[in-house]
Design brief:
Chain A is mainly α and 226 residues long. In chain A, 65% of the residues lie in helices and 4% in strands. Chain A contains 9 helices and 3 strands. In chain A, strands 1-2-3 form a 3-stranded antiparallel beta sheet. Classes of the chains: A mainly alpha (226), B alpha+beta (297). Chains A and B meet through α1, α2, α6 and α8 of A and α3, α7 and α8 of B.
Chain lengths: 226, 297
């Protein structure tokens, strides 16, 4: 089943049957593997970040346990980001529509969505978040391996230890900034957004309101199919 | 590894004040190592192993007196042998007893995220508490002397304790007790500084070592292990003793400005989205009220 296909969901209480598939099951599972591993990394990472947050490590089995699993969870997160890149890489390319939309970002922030330039399946904000996570994950992996095996780096190459700390902290902080905005927008701000990543579908008005070009494309496909 | 009765000055990864701060007065202790009278007998190495109950490691042979290549998690005290040649003195075998320097400003403690894993006592001893260590290795990055060593088996980091358990009960460290030449001394910091300076003066004025001096590096605000060197201008000649050790600037940045900027940014982000929600509310799709599956085109 391809995303964009119209699906029938009669068993969802209160839902109409006329919903559009936005994320396939594979995409949703991939997203939640990334999300859960990221949250584990965030909780343990914040524990290592500040003495005032060290108690967070107790939530996941204590300091040594957190230290043991943090890098392994990092590998899982990185693998799932790579897989996500296979799903979404092409859809995350910047288009002319994105440039037009980005100029009106002020109105988007003020929830004046009605007369914004139309965008495709993902708007430019989503694309920025995507690439932030993608390149952030690469930097976190490279620096993280250095931190994982600090003692194996020879003394003559200790500049790598220093660089690893700064890169890891910098990349982590950038992704945390994006993460705060992403979680806010997809749970509290935009109705239907969270559901789309759980159930996979969105309503037609939702698609038309937020992703007009994507909606038009789907409508065209439906017409030709009929 | 034993903190019994010692007044604490600093605790790694610790939020809030130091328990029991300012309760007792204590002398700042200091170990003095006179490299000019060391004969490289390695008695201090054996004494260290014996007192601390460490397992013996297999020795190596590479045509020098250096039969242990480096300090390790279970070998905290090592004499480094270095052949050195200069115009005035010809070939010299420099011997430096290497171990934790017990910095006044310890980079290991600054870098450590685990509450109570590294403790600095008012007497100057910097001691690792393995039961609180999480094995992250940040102390390895923070140390300018390459001292903390990670045990892959224990997943903890170990180093010289300055025999804190002996010092606590009024004894000198094991290495001091074993030294046959008297090149090792232990006492208060002012006493050891004075003794070291008088020996350096003697070396300069009588023994023909014009550059003899005391190594008590100011970059880490001084150390509680100090050296008398034949040539204090070139400490690197003694097997990697840094001429200007300090806590790495990356660690200072990370634990200073970056931490405060990062905290402010995280808090600002959370507050920002909350204020946004209260000011602008939700993005609703007005027509998204499905009734009986009808289309709203």
């Amino acid at each position: 089943m391809n995303s964009g296909q119209v699906v029938s969901r009669p068993y969802v209480a209160g839902r109409g049957e006329d919903r559009i598939l936005r994320y396939t099951l594979a995409e949703r599972i991939n997203h939640w593997v990334s999300a859960i591993s990221y949250i584990y990394l965030l909780v343990t990472g914040l524990g290592f970040w500040s003495p005032y947050l060290f108690w967070l490590t107790a939530l996941v089995g204590g300091g040594p346990t957190a230290r043991f699993w943090h890098p392994w969870m990092g590998l899982l997160f990185f693998a799932s980001v790579l897989l996500m890149n296979m799903h979404w890489r092409k859809e995350m390319r910047t288009t002319d529509a994105d440039r037009a939309w980005w100029k009106e970002i002020g109105r988007y922030i003020q929830n004046q969505d009605d007369n914004l330039p139309p965008v495709g399946k993902f708007n430019f904000g989503q694309k920025l978040w995507y690439w932030l996570i993608f390149y952030g994950a690469i930097l976190l992996l490279l620096s993280g391996v250095g931190l994982w095996f600090t003692e194996s780096l020879p003394w003559s190459m200790r500049f790598l230890r220093y660089a690893a700390i700064l890169v890891h902290v910098g990349a982590a902080l950038l992704t945390i900034g994006g993460f705060i905005i992403h979680v806010y927008m997809s749970t509290a701000l935009e109705e239907g957004s969270f559901d789309s990543m759980v159930e996979g579908t969105v309503s037609r008005p939702w698609a038309r309101e937020f992703h007009r070009l994507w909606y038009d494309e789907i409508s065209r496909q439906e017409t030709t199919r009929k | 590894m034993s903190s019994a009765g010692l007044e604490i000055r600093a605790i790694s990864g610790h939020p809030g004040p130091i328990p029991g701060a300012g309760l007792k007065q204590e002398f700042e202790v200091c170990k003095l190592i006179d490299t000019t009278t060391c004969i490289g007998c390695k008695a201090c190495e054996v004494a260290c192993l014996e007192w601390n109950g460490l397992t013996f490691s297999e020795t190596t042979f590479n045509n020098s007196y250096q039969t242990m290549p480096d300090t390790s998690w279970n070998y905290w005290n090592l004499i480094r042998f270095n052949e050195h040649e200069d115009h005035d003195h010809g070939l010299m075998l420099l011997m430096r007893k290497d171990q934790c320097m017990h910095c006044e400003e310890p980079g290991c403690l600054a870098a450590c995220p685990a509450d109570g894993a590294i403790i600095q006592y008012v007497n100057g001893i910097v001691d690792f508490q393995q039961e609180h260590c999480i094995g992250c290795g940040y102390c390895i990055t923070g140390c300018p002397f390459n001292i903390p060593k990670f045990s892959p088996a224990a997943k903890k980091v170990f180093k010289c304790t300055l025999c804190v358990d002996r010092v606590t009960v009024g004894l000198e460290p094991a290495c001091i007790k074993a030294c046959p030449t008297g090149c090792l001394h232990f006492g208060t910091k002012p006493e050891m500084k004075e003794l070291a300076e008088s020996r350096a003066t003697q070396l300069r004025e009588i023994s023909g070592f014009a550059n003899a001096g005391v190594y008590d590096p100011p970059g880490v605000k001084g150390t509680h292990v100090i050296y008398v060197l034949h040539d204090a201008m070139h400490p690197e000649a003694y097997g990697g003793l840094p001429s200007d050790p300090h806590v790495p600037w990356s660690v200072k940045l990370w634990k200073g400005p970056i931490k405060w900027l990062g905290n402010a940014a995280i808090l600002g982000g959370v507050l920002g989205v909350a204020v946004h929600f209260m000011r602008y509310g939700r993005k609703r799709v007005e027509k998204d009220q499905p009734r009986n599956g009808t289309r709203h085109e």
